[in-house]
Design goal:
The protein has 351 residues and is an alpha/beta fold. It has 2 domains: 183 residues, Rossmann fold; 132 residues, 3-Layer(aba) Sandwich (Rossmann fold). The protein has a 6-stranded parallel beta sheet with strand order 2-1-5-6-7-8, with helices on both faces. Strand 5, helix 3 and strand 6 form a beta-alpha-beta unit. Helix 10 crosses helix 13. The longest helix is centred in the N-terminal third of the chain and has 15 residues. The radius of gyration is 20 Å and the shape is globular. The relative contact order is 0.16.
């Protein structure tokens, strides 16, 4: 099966959506499926005033059509609701092609904390976007239930996984810091609710790995916190393995792949009882969820690192890819995409 995934989120961005799609492609290939991506590369772009450092692509109809037709996909999936997502959605609707979507980011909440746009308006736009698809894939049962209550239909499940070869307790960074170490990894931005973590009265050291528009402000306000900047690959994994507790204060993530990555490193998780943590952690002895984040942090300290690792080993990207491909199996694109526009030697990104 040839699968084309349209996404506004792509390298060099470092976030859960990009990591999920990259891991999906690698695992799908091992299962005999070929995944291509229609990404922002090659399109003009503009900055987002309310989201410093982020740029969004400005796709045109003709180039979107050319890239889709060059890919000749059996199935089309739209991963994000940005300009590329809307452009591919329009292409499919004009040609009466089936496609699937995924709900990966709580854009209404993100926009609401940065503007005066009401939450209800954001969800109205997203309902309209996803209603055109044959299925909207979500990562967790609790998110599926929540979206159903907001009027979303045709919901399906697509779980997440973790690279347990990369994220492992076998390689630990040497952090010469007072113990215990409470760590967060992710974008340093207002929607991640980092202040709920940084303001806690905890023993030892608080560490933040990542970059983003709030980093300078939070560095000034919390001078005892160690901001180590962005890290990737084995360096990132080694730092996560060096933490005593991984603190996940976000209230708006739809899943939080970083939780599984921490557990794969043997690091227990502390979080609020919201979508993502309640699905990943639930009542398993691999983390603590509590409305009092400080209590969650202290409870997580006493949890077995071996149990955390064993739990993560049960969540592979292969099983996630199988579920994704299964969702597409009856939703293949109509034959004109393949038969009329096969362009030799060109990829979906136009490179």
């Amino acid at each position: 099966m040839r699968i084309l995934i349209a996404t506004d989120a792509w390298h060099p961005q470092v976030n859960g959506v990009v990591r999920t799609l990259t891991s999906l492609a690698a695992s799908a290939s091992a299962l005999g499926a070929k995944v291509q991506f229609l990404v922002p590369e090659g399109f003009p772009s503009v900055g987002v005033p309310t989201y410093p450092g982020l740029r969004i692509a400005l796709p045109n109809k003709r180039e979107i059509a050319r890239r889709i037709e060059a890919a000749a996909p059996d199935a089309i999936h739209i991963a994000t609701e940005g300009p590329i997502g809307w452009a591919v959605r329009a292409y499919c609707r004009r040609r009466k092609l089936k496609f699937t979507t995924s709900y990966t980011t709580r854009f209404p909440e993100y926009i609401a904390v940065r503007s005066i746009i009401p939450l209800s308006w954001g969800y109205e736009v997203l309902r309209r976007f996803h209603a055109a698809g044959a299925m909207t894939m979500v990562a967790t049962k609790s998110l599926r239930k929540e979206l159903a209550s907001r009027g979303f239909g045709r919901l399906g499940t697509w779980g997440r996984g973790v690279d347990t070869d990369l994220f492992t307790p076998d390689h630990v960074a040497a952090l010469d810091l007072p113990r215990p170490i409470f760590m967060n990894v992710g974008r340093v931005a207002v929607e991640k609710n980092l202040e709920a973590f940084l303001s806690l009265q905890l023993p030892g050291t608080k560490v933040v790995i990542g970059d983003g528009p709030q980093r300078a402000e939070l560095t000034r306000r919390y001078p005892t916190v160690k901001f180590l900047g962005e890290k990737t690959g084995r360096d990132l994994a080694a730092h996560v393995a060096a933490a005593d507790v991984f603190v996940f204060p976000s209230l708006t993530d739809t899943f939080g792949v970083v939780q599984l990555e921490a557990l794969a490193c043997g690091t227990p998780v502390a979080a609020f009882p919201v979508t993502g943590p309640i699905d990943v952690i639930a009542d398993q002895p691999v983390g603590a969820i509590d409305a009092d984040l400080q209590q969650a942090c202290m409870r997580a300290l006493g949890m077995s690192r071996e149990t955390c690792r064993s739990f993560a080993l049960e969540h592979s990207w292969e099983s996630s890819a199988r579920q994704f491909i299964g969702n597409l199996s009856d939703l293949r694109a109509s034959s004109p995409v393949r038969s009329a526009y096969r362009i030799a030697g060109k990829t979906a990104t136009g490179s």
